[in-house]
Design brief:
- By secondary structure, the chain is an alpha+beta fold.
- The protein has two helices and twelve strands, in the order βαβββββββββββα.
- The chain has helices spanning 5-15, 153-165, and strands at residues 2-4, 26-30, 58-62, 77-80, 87-88, 99-104, 108-113, 120-122, 125-126, 133-134, 139-143, 146-151.
- It starts with a strand and ends in a 10-residue tail after the last helix.
Length: 175
């Protein structure tokens, strides 16, 4: 499930020097830049599910199996347009089951294309279907037309702190 960047900014402020309590890497899907005079979305809406990043905001997907996800692919973290994926992406360029991530304690994280219609990219490399490619911290990935960044937990925390300091994620968060 996607969570707005603002939620993580609030958690960072609350936890202070302890940082974020993330156990897995995240994918960050950022929206287009703010236009002059636009105010970024800063509040959560109770009971609503955000499927696309709002202008000036970002959605964050933790790379872990959801406890309620009922997909047939138990080996990896699935990405696709169908809601049954671990990382559901609301975009017509994304296949129902587009790609998946797999973590191995020895080799780290790998990204696989699942024979998608519009391809999976790791940086400038278009992935060969069903062939895993190692993915590193802060790597740019693309599923169809949707671009995201892969962050390990420490790097995501640093990204968030920098974004908050510059006025992103709703600006500096008051205590």
């Amino acid at each position: 499930m996607a969570i707005g960047l603002w939620y993580f900014a609030q958690q960072l402020v609350v936890r202070g020097s302890r940082g974020l309590a993330l156990e897995a890497p995240v994918l960050v899907w950022e929206s287009v830049e703010l236009r002059p005079g636009e105010v970024p979305y800063q509040n959560t809406e109770a009971g609503t599910f955000q499927t696309r990043p709002r202008t000036g905001d970002a959605l964050v997907f933790e790379l872990k199996k959801g406890p309620s996800k009922q997909n047939a692919f138990a080996v990896g973290i699935t990405v696709g347009r169908a809601e049954t994926n671990d990382v559901p992406i609301d975009d017509v360029s994304v296949s129902r089951f587009h790609a998946y991530f797999h973590h191995d304690l020895k080799t780290g994280w790998k990204l696989y294309d699942a024979e998608s219609s519009n391809g999976t990219w790791l940086g400038a490399l278009k992935l060969t279907p069903k062939t895993g490619e190692p993915i590193g911290d802060r790597s740019r990935v693309r599923f169809g037309d949707v671009e995201m960044t892969f962050y390990e937990p420490k790097s995501f925390s640093a990204f968030l702190q920098k974004r908050m300091a510059s006025g992103g994620a709703g600006g500096p968060v008051p205590l």
